[in-house]
Write a structure and sequence with these properties.
Helix 1 crosses helix 3. The chain has five helices and ten strands; from the N terminus they run H-E-E-E-E-E-E-H-E-H-E-E-H-E-H. It is an alpha+beta fold. Strand 8 and strand 9 form a beta hairpin. The strands form three sheets. The protein has a six-stranded antiparallel sheet with strand order 6-5-4-1-7-10, sandwiched between helices. The chain is globular.
Length: about 200
């Protein structure tokens, strides 16, 4: 069983809207800022995607069988890292919430060695503070013929004073676009498998 971080909500108390993982994670970052701002620098929003927007993840609620992967165009998780270790908060997994990073990674990402190159995952790691300040979405990516493909959250769109929509910059895995740091799976595992010093 994973240890729990007292200032982060239980899964049942999280703000959650299906298929709006980027906003669900933004709300978790906001929760930390409101209730324990001194911990914000230990928190990260992690976008998972690739050039083809085909990233397989295992143990997902959306799978008819969690032992089979779901291929997302992108997914976003919340990661907390301190001197003790690292925890993953994924509102779309069947795994425990939170879950230790190593166990989550081994069951959710498995290995790129079993995948064709088109399915290799890349990770844009964005500090929570930066994410709260810079992320914006007008939810237009969920519109088709003027209708939402999935019902949007019931709160206003997340915007900054300068921008109403930059979601594509976060999903992009080009190192010269967006904010944060883009990593391959090996780099990502190395970065978060070690405790924060």
């Amino acid at each position: 069983m994973s240890r729990e971080i007292s200032f982060l909500p239980e899964k049942s108390s999280c703000v959650y809207t299906q298929c709006y993982c980027e906003e669900n994670v933004w709300k978790m970052c906001e929760c930390v800022k409101l209730h324990q701002p001194d911990q914000l620098d230990r928190c990260h929003a992690v976008f998972i995607s690739n050039t083809n927007k085909t990233v397989p993840l295992w143990m997902q609620v959306a799978a008819s069988n969690p032992t089979k992967p779901v291929v997302w165009d992108y997914h976003v998780i919340f990661v907390y890292k301190d001197c003790v270790g690292c925890l993953v908060y994924d509102l779309d997994t069947v795994l425990p919430f939170p879950y230790t990073f190593r166990k989550y990674a081994s069951q959710t990402f498995r290995s790129d060695l079993i995948l064709l190159p088109d399915y290799h995952r890349l990770f844009r790691v964005v500090p929570a503070r930066v994410y709260l300040e810079q992320f914006a979405s007008d939810r237009s990516h969920m519109l088709a013929s003027g209708e939402y493909q999935m019902e949007p959250p019931d709160y206003p769109c997340i915007q900054t004073t300068e921008c109403s929509n930059n979601l594509a910059d976060f999903i992009s895995m080009k190192e010269d676009e967006g904010c944060g740091e883009v990593m391959n799976l090996v780099q990502f595992l190395h970065t978060f498998s070690l405790p924060h010093r």
